[in-house]
Amino acid sequence: MNRETKKYYVLLSGLLFFFFFTWSASFSLISIWLNQKIGLKGTETGLIFSAMSIMALCAQPLYGFIQDKLGLRKHLLLFVGTLLLLTGPFFIYVYAPLLQTNLVAGALVGGLFVSLAFNAGIGALESYTERVSRIVGFEFGRARMWGSLGWASATFFAGFIYNINPNINFWIASASAAVFLLLLWQVRELKPNAMAGLEYGKPENLKLQDALALLRLPGFWALVVFVLGTSIYGVFDQQFPVYFASQFATHEEGNRMYGFLNSLQVFLEAGGMFLAPLLVNRIGIKQSLLLASSVMAVRMFGSGFASGALMISAMKLLHAVELPILLVALFKYITTRFDSRLSSTLYLVGFQFISQIVAGILAPLAGLGYDRIGFADTYLLMGCAVAGTTLISCFLLRGETPARAPQFQSTIKSSEPIQ
């Protein structure tokens, strides 16, 4: 790894670390916060998550097209970073009071903020990082690993801090966001012609019709079917902390132990991010996607059948296997099966946007299921849905390597930073 490549790797890895640190500090215990501090039940919490998902439906396609249009420029990331900086004041002085006085207004305002800052923001950052990684010559998964470490680092302390005062976590999130902005300021934009080595055309020539043309491609809808199943894991994880904490004698002990468990899971996930590119390159992109989806189904079935904190914890840790494989394989699938100028749009629409549609529909239904039939039975139903879409995707996803797939190579010499 040459000096310039190492510089971009370090800076972008740092951006991912502090983005996820900010997200984790403010959001890893959000369902516990809504349940124990705001006093919401499962169905009401499901409505909150549904509102976040619905708001993200508007933000994610917009973010995707804007980032594709911007190419290698940082304007959208600067906007996201500014929102991250406001996380602490927003949650403490705006979101909590609104939820306590007017649940609908709180859900709408909170959904807008969370979708713009986090749910859509992460897609913009990940797709930007993936694009730069192809230009300068490092594996995206190795940089994304630091995002997992950022989440794990914040979560490790979140349970302790929450038991002292939840607001401290929100202030820590804003402090982390300040570091994110400082690192982003250090990232020099690559010249626009740096994309010539891996894209089919100049990003500034990209038109809305190019993005809309994706809707006419059978391959796009095959990807959507796959994502319909895998996105259920987001709904599965939303209220899992409440279920896990209920396995312990007190809320405080449950909160603390969940912090440890989530931190361990994400540390393992970081190791998975480092190893996932090797596995994906070894067994193939389609096979990797199906493997990740299969592990996801096993985790949901296992959580439904498991009893006791130890077995439930073991099922939770399987997330450290499925997510790294899914993310690395998904980006490789997108950039080798479609026009890679649209990689941000495809990721934010084909994956993130569809995930939010599923979450918007299923989150309140899942909350109702938790209240009516319990967590275990609801998890079994989720597992059936993921297993079904995995089976269908065996026949729909494309397994061949297209002739026009861009070669992974460093083009740093043609992409000297703007002085």
UniProtKB/TrEMBL annotation:
Keyword Nuclease: no
Domain Major facilitator superfamily (MFS) profile, chain residue ranges per copy: 9-402
Subcellular location: Cell inner membrane
Superkingdom per UniProt: Bacteria
Transmembrane portions of the chain: 9-34, 46-64, 76-96, 102-125, 145-162, 168-185, 213-236, 256-280, 289-311, 317-334, 346-366, 378-397
Membrane topology annotation: Multi-pass membrane protein
Principal subcellular localization: membrane
Keyword Acetylation: no
GO cellular component: plasma membrane
Keywords: Cell inner membrane, Cell membrane, Membrane, Transmembrane, Transmembrane helix, Transport
GO molecular-function term, one example from the UniProt record: lactose:proton symporter activity
Name recorded for this polypeptide: MFS transporter
Upper lineage: Bacteria, Pseudomonadati, Pseudomonadota, Gammaproteobacteria, Enterobacterales
